[in-house]
Queue: 2 jobs
Job 1
Amino acid sequence: MDDDLIGEDRPPSRRPVAVALALAVVAGGFGLTQRLTAADPIPPRPPPVESGAATPSRPLTAPSAPAAAAAPAPGSGPAPWAGLARHRDAGVDFALHRLVRADGRSYRLGRGDQALDMHDAAAGPVLLVQSRGSTLLEQLRRDGSRFVLETFQGDFRLPQGIAVDPAGERVAYAVTTGTSRGPFGLVVQDLRTGAVLASRTTRRPYGVRDWLPSGVVLTVAAESGGLPFRWRPGSGAPDQVTPAPGDGKRLFLLAGAPRREEWLVTGPRCTGLVRALGRRPARWYCQVPLAEPAAWSPSGQLVVARGDRPVLRVLDLRSGRTSRLGIPPRVFVSQVTWRSADTVLVSLRTLSGGRGAVLSCRLEQPCRRLELGAPGPAADLVLSL
């Protein structure tokens, strides 16, 4: 028995879709879906502590009119990005506190709600929302309803990252469970019905980082080395992407390839390219150290990542050369994502003062500040991944 990975995967449910939908329909609308499979090795969620904290399907405020111009940023002096050209772009999906913009429509969550994470999906964006003392994993359906997939109460089963599969039909997340069989867990749910398709208790503190065609990409927190793993739900235990280096150095996941089974792992000075699962890096890039946040381009040839200074570097995997994006100094980069083959969206904030912005940066060109119509400081803005 594997000492680090215990429990059993639950294979995807093969019951007729009609049964799943019948269990999912509550009061003529969408509801919290009952689990359709046998007893879950991960303990069931507790009942909501506060009435209304996890309403199965809460209507959103009707699509709002375009938001008013942003309020003056707090703090003294101009923002680091003050000299950048501005560009209006209403096509970027994002969430800022209660405001969520997706598919060209703007909505507001309930009072006191704040969006913490946002991912694209087939039937509407999937969000992690902090709401009245609990954390909700939910989907904003295209009919304007909020379909709650899971409720995390207080310190129970805290989510450790979420990711949506490439088809936009399933969501994977890691949790802290505190069970006798393992202190942590991995879960996959069907976004249409809420049914649990796979669950697994683990001893390693996994965090879900991404979901690629090759499987769910996991990182290991609070462990020396933090090596990445790849997990195919329902097919067994997670597989280690690359062996630990024998010289005692630490390697961490930088990014996974969007279409191939390749990964980049990074250490104190160099970044390694792993071309096959379980193999050691076949190539090293040591021009500058790279770190999170990072994203692999759709073409598979470029990777954008934090560089040796608080700037972003673009690594060309073919030549090994790196180039800098036009990010202003004295900022903290919180998110990066590729908008197209040569354009990166960057969410950043000031080191103090609570100011934030989203930049659109094309390779070898100056960055532009996007005007998204988001009211107030954008330090807590999250981009849809």
Job 2
Amino acid sequence: MLGWFRAFWRFMYFGFTTSFGIAGFFWKVLTGIPKEEAGPRLRRWWLRHVPWKLGLHMELHGDPYQGTCLYVGNHITYIDPIVVLTHVDANVVAKAEISKWPIMGYGASIVGTIFVRREEKSSRRETAKAIREALEKNISILVFPEGTTSAGPQTLPFRPRSFEAAFQAGVPVQPVAIYYDSPKVAFVGNHTFLPHFFNLFAMKEIHGKVTFGPLLYGEDTCDQASRWINDTMLRADPIPVVNEYSSKT
């Protein structure tokens, strides 16, 4: 019972804080602050308040690069972007379905999220172009190049377009390995958002590690990043293997 009360309180806090932040975004725009500036401000403000209230306790390893960069990580669940963005400032690439999620989807859209319909080739091309243009404007990007969530212990094959965009823009790639101590965190199989959210945040705390790797340069950064993340996950004793994956996020 205590766990469900905790999850309900966190859900309400999550929704209220996000809604309050969206209202603050509109106020800033009405007072003359450009949307392109107000959005990142909202993201940074949200990240200062929400993660610790949700019980996230992730150990940091490595040195997050603070310059313009393409950050690429393995994808386990919908809180992965929160885990990474706690340490770096970047726009996220996410599946178009997330834009339809209540509150969260709209909040994601106004902070600069690039939405992609991965089943459509034209959308993938447009997303790669948007990534390159953002990087050329010194806006860092966070992408999960598996294109779906999985519980490991190894990543699914990486999609190369974002790496090509980084090479064309002349910016480095920094791989990020994410792993959690509990198998409950993985958003895979037939999971749906609300039941998974309540099961996940009924936990008193969520523990794990986020490791930032070396900067990668050149035309083969896709393979380099995949190898580094897989090697790091194998050494880190990640969550137990789940033999199914989902395209939820």
